[in-house]
Amino acid sequence: MGTDIKAAVLGAGMYVPPKVVTNDDLAKLMTTSDEWIVARTGIKTRHYVEGETGAADLAYEASVEACRNAGIEPGDLDCIVFSTLSPDYNFPGSGVLLQARLGAPGVPAIDIRNQCSGFIYGLSTADAFIRAGQYRRVLVVGSEVHSTGLDFSDRGRDVAVLFGDGAGAVVLGPIAADEGRGVLATRLHSDGGGAKDLWVEAPASRYNPRLTHEMLDAGKHYPAMNGKKVFVNAVRAMPTVVGECLAGAGLKIGDIDLFIPHQANLRICTAVQEHLGLSDTKVFNNIQKYGNTTAASIPIAVCEAQREGRLKRGDLLCIASFGSGYTWAAALIRW
Predict the structure, then answer these.
(1) Other CB atoms within 10 A of residue 67 CB
(2) 233-261 pLDDT, tens per residue?
(3) Which residues in 16-43 are b (16+ Cβ under 10 Å) and which e?
(4) Structure letter (DSSP) for residue 197
(5) Catalytic (active site) residue 318
(6) Is there a contact between 322 and 233 (Cβ–Cβ < 8 Å)?
């Protein structure tokens, strides 16, 4: 069966919490400004959760929309693949929390921890499941709640201004292999040599105790980043993995109708676009509104691009990511 089918995107959905936080709002908490943030990141606003809201809550809203747009009920799902670096709890994973809320008892829920590349890693996993004939309706979701884990002081401002909360999801299902649509190629990579360039050190099971007052005082429970190294490696890796995907599918850069990079930093997105030689009409960015939503950034952008008519049936969509790990990945999808 596996050789006769491909996986296609049947529907997409997204959700961001209603609270909008501007750069001027952040300037009231730390020494920064709208001009400084826009010049270095391209970000104008982001969305933050309020109250006790977890990644699974945001994922639920995006998943319901994705299922509705796919013409199925959540109970029709065969598998859930949940990508996040900000799970509701240390354990269990957020996938089972989403599964319970969607009302899909017994359906397997897989949690993926590949940070900014998590959605493409999840997409590749779902694609393999469907092509192998193991599952027919797979929900792939990326969801993040960053705002409750950021250091809103001058010590953490370089990282805190980057991130926002949100979720995006797609439903994948089987189609005949001779149809033009579907996932054409995926490529996944990692290099743990850069793990400490973008990480949260504590709490950690390698320490006993996992978290101490000294760690808290030092801010080790907040994300830390070597921005220059991440920038250089992202700009190098993303065009390369896009080229690998195109070669694997027997296609070339000019065949791409729309390119959606992971929304980490507008300067990175622009540099990758220039390396690929793509015009503005072939690239979609929305980091200006949402900031970096990590595993959610690509599915949110995919959903928005479709809503705005930038992504249409038959288009060749290329998505690519780079982030913590290091991990990087790309996928080609005939929409």
Answers:
(1) 24
(2) 999 999 999 999 999 999 999 999 999 99
(3) bbeeebebeebbeebebeeeebeebbbb
(4) G
(5) no
(6) yes
In the chain, what is the straight-line distance between the N-terminal and C-terminal CA atoms, in Å? Answer: 22
In the chain, helix, strand, coil percent, each to 5? 40, 25, 35
Q: Which of 79, 116, 245, 269 is catalytic?
A: 116
Question: Within 10 Å of residue 139's Cβ, how many Cβ atoms?
Answer: 34
Mean pLDDT of 193-204: 97
Among 176, 205, 238, the domain-final residue is 176
In sign, the C-alpha dihedral spanning 144, 41, 246, 253 is: positive
Q: Which of 269, 292, 303, 318 is catalytic?
A: 292
Beta strands 79-83 and 45-48: pairing type? unpaired
CB 321 within 8 A of CB 116: yes
Enclosing domain of residue 317: 182-334
Please give the Cα distance from 311 to 288 (Å, whole number): 19
Catalytic pick among 79, 114, 245, 262: 262
* pLDDT value of position 1: 42
Per-position DSSP letters for 42-72, written without gaps between them: ---EEEE--SS--HHHHHHHHHHHHHHHHT-
pLDDT tops 70 at residue 2: no
Active site annotation includes 189: no
CATH code assigned at 282: 3.40.47.10
Percentage of the chain with pLDDT > 70?
99
For residue 91, give the 3-state DSSP assignment: coil
Domain co-membership, 25 together with 118 = yes
Quick one: which of 136, 107, 125 has its CA closest to 1? 136
